[in-house]
Amino acid sequence: MAMSPALWADSSAPQSSFQYHNKSAVAAVGKQPNVVEPGGLYRTDYDSEFGIIWARLQASCPARFTPALIQGLREFQMDVERRVRNEMATAHPNPTRYQVFASDIPGIFSLGGDLELFQRLIKAKNKAELSRYALECVDLVHTNVTNYRLPVTTISLVQGTALGGGFEAALAANVVVAERSVRMGLPEVMFNMFPGMGAYQLLTRRLTPVQAERMILSGRTYTAEDLYDMGVIDIVAEDGQGEAAVYSYIRRHSKQAHGEAGLRRLVQQSTPIDYDDMRKSVEIWVETALGLSDSDLRHMDYLIRAQRKNQPQQRLD
Predict the structure, then answer these.
(1) CB 176 within 8 Å of CB 195
(2) 40, pLDDT greater than 90
(3) What is the pTM of this model?
(4) Which domain holds residue 27?
(5) What is the CATH classification number for the domain harbouring 205?
(6) How many structural domains is the chain composed of?
(7) E strands along 174-311, which residues?
């Protein structure tokens, strides 16, 4: 499927063709901190003591999921899968057991999908490229929430605001750790839309369908404590203690990693998040998006301004 460069172009990301070269970060045995991919969007660390691969959005990364960021994270996921499968095939004595996704953007985990791109594609009635973007997001979410169908536990560490697709990204993990002051929510109803890249499926693993629907339609932002009390997230850490909370969780669970991996398989079998179902959700999302009125798109402008406001200055050119 060919892309139209004028519509797909992302002014906040490097315009050269994106190539992922972080193989050393996931291939080396031992700790290799601060390996930054060429586009400067995120960095990886590998902690061999605990078998953790970290992926952290750089402080200079856009506060939304741009096409370049999505592409880079998909490449990262594919490298992680290759690494783990190779470790299993060679009976590695200290295999990778955890993947943690976090953000170094000050005060922000992610503000969600690329709304400026959405608006441009909707106005152009470009169904093909809107679908392409959404399906690539679904690939990211589904790979993470099904933990690669491998004995790996995926963890989200939320240390800042997570809205829309950012909240979906946080929920697309087996374990969600959030610091106390963060806010999370699904604001899409503000411009007459709904989150279509997995929010409903992810929430109904943790809530009843009625509760999930109410949360989506409320448009509210929630505190970490609210979400913990509802069962939507797993751990609330004090501000600045999120990473310590991740390590505390891993230390507690390391001795039962084998049994926990079996439980993950059982969860995936008993309450599966079906990839085809998520793709069908995207079809509904795209049809709904293309039906937005001019008034709805003007309401979207408010959130676009919020994403621009929180855009790192060095990426505004």
Answers:
(1) no
(2) no
(3) 0.86
(4) 16-241+262-315
(5) 3.90.226.10
(6) 1
(7) 175-179, 183-185, 221-223, 235-237
